[in-house]
Amino acid sequence: MKTNRNFLKKALPLLLILLSLALLLGACTNNQSMADLPEDASVCKLVIDCKTILDNMEDFNADKADILPEDGVILAEAEYAIAEGATAMDILTAAAQANDIVIDAGDGYVKGIANIYEFDCGEKSGWMYLVNGAFASVGADEYEVQEGDVISFLYSCDWGNDLPIEEPSEE
After folding, report:
1. Which long-range contacts (CB under 8 A, 24 or more apart) does 108-113 make?
2. How far apart are CA 113 and CA 99, in angstroms?
C-alpha cells in the first residue's frame, strides 16, 4: 500500500501538468464544440488553402501531386474560440492538431502545411497569412487574434501577387 501512495505522490504533479496542458490546448477550440462555449466567447475564423498551385501545376513539385487537394482547400473556413492573448500561430497550431494537419513552422514563419512547403511551386512560392483579407505586418506568432478576425493561411506561387488581397480602406 505504501508503494501505491509513493507512486501517486510522484505521479500527481505530472498529471496536473498534463491536465493544464490539455486545458491550454483546448483554449483554441474548433467549431465542432462551439455549442459548448459560453455565449460571450470570442471567436475567429481560419482557412488554409493552396488554390494558387492549381493555376501553376507546371511549376509544382511533381512528386507531391498526389497530396495536393483537388480543390486546393486544406482546411475549409471554420470558427475557433480565441483564448486571451492567442496569436494567429496559436490558432493555426490548434486547428492543425484538431484536424491532423502537419505544419512546419517556427519564429512566426510557416515553412510547410500538409507537406506542401515553400519553393514547392517555384522560387517565389511559399505560405503567407492574411488577417481580414490583408497581409499582416508582423509574424504569425506576434499577431494577437481579435474577435471576428478571419485568418487565412494561403499558399502563394508569386510572392503574394497571386493572392486575393483587400486594399486597406482610406477612412
Report:
1. 108/138, 108/139, 108/140, 108/141, 108/142, 109/139, 109/140, 110/140, 110/153, 113/48, 113/50, 113/74, 113/153, 113/155
2. 12
**pLDDT tens, position by position, 126-139:** 999 999 999 999 99
DSSP string, 19-63: HHHHHHHTTS-BGGGGGGS-TT--EEEEEEE-GGGGGGTTTS-GG
pLDDT (tens digit, 9 = 90+) per residue, 141-169? 999 999 999 999 999 999 999 999 886 55
- The sign of the CA dihedral 60, 63, 67, 69 is positive
Q: Look at the chain and count its residues.
A: 171
pLDDT range class, residue 84, cuts 50, 70, 90 = very high
Nine cell digits for residue 31: 467549431
Identify whether the C-beta of residue 129 lies closer than 8 Å to the C-beta of residue 105: no
* Predicted model pTM: 0.78
